[in-house]
Design a protein that fits this description.
Blueprint lengths: L17 H4 L8 H19 L12 H18 L5 H21 L12 H4 L5
Helix pairs in contact: 2-3, 2-4, 3-4
Length: 125
């Protein structure tokens, strides 16, 4: 039995009114969109690094590299658009992912050549 509130029905009845369930994207502040995308990239990268519960079976360093690189590019491009209040924790998370990638990788990248280091500079660890 679920405690979830049922979806509002459409005026025609029967099927959910998806317009009532969704928020107009125009009403979402840019900083919220950017941080939400960054958090999704971070989460996906963490799973692909094998950092999730039971994650060794999901480890895919090629996918993790792409996600970390994309996250670094997003943060670099949006640094002047989002406040340091938002950017600081995201940069910390990015660095943690970069270090975890370096630790998980059997073949170590040269400093400055790891995922996202084009944007962040070399990560040592």
């Amino acid at each position: 039995m679920s405690d979830a509130t049922p979806a509002p029905e459409s005026p025609a009845g029967g099927s959910p009114d998806f317009d009532a369930l969704t928020r107009d994207i125009a009403d979402v502040p840019a900083v919220e969109v950017i941080t939400t995308v960054a958090v999704h990239l971070m989460s996906a990268a963490a799973v692909n690094l094998g950092l999730a519960e039971g994650g060794e079976g999901h480890q895919d360093l090629d996918e993790a590299r792409k996600l970390i690189h994309s996250l670094a590019g997003l943060l670099d491009a949006s640094a002047t658009e989002i406040s340091s209040f938002h950017a600081g924790p995201l940069r910390d998370g990015l660095k943690s992912l970069q270090l975890a990638f370096r630790e998980a990788s059997l073949v170590k990248d040269e400093p400055g050549q790891g995922p996202g280091e084009k944007y962040t500079g070399p990560i040592y660890g």
